[in-house]
Amino acid sequence: MSRSVWKGPFVDGYLLGKAEASRASGRNEIIKIWSRRSTILPQFVGLTFGVYNGRKFLPVQVTENMVGHKFGEFSPRAPSRGTRRIRKRSGANHEQTQSSAVAGR
Fold this sequence. Notes:
- By secondary structure, this protein is α+β, with helices and mostly antiparallel strands.
- It is built from 2 helices and 3 strands, in the order H-E-E-E-H.
- A 3-stranded mixed β-sheet has the order 1-2-3, covered by helices on one side.
């Protein structure tokens, strides 16, 4: 379900301040953000944002075609490492299960 029109697009408050400060300074530096859920506004066009993907900041250069989308769409999340395999301890019980598994073949 999409967001209600009367509420307007969602943007974290600190993000607007960082974008205005960067534009006022005139330097083309990467603005680090953690808000993947924020909507890209027309004021952000031409700026570079470092969107956090869970492991590192990926640079996203905002263009006119991105307006209305979310920052998270342009920064894929860090791949999960999965569950680690637990090794069984060696011992008398381990040897019995190994021999019964071989005998069952």
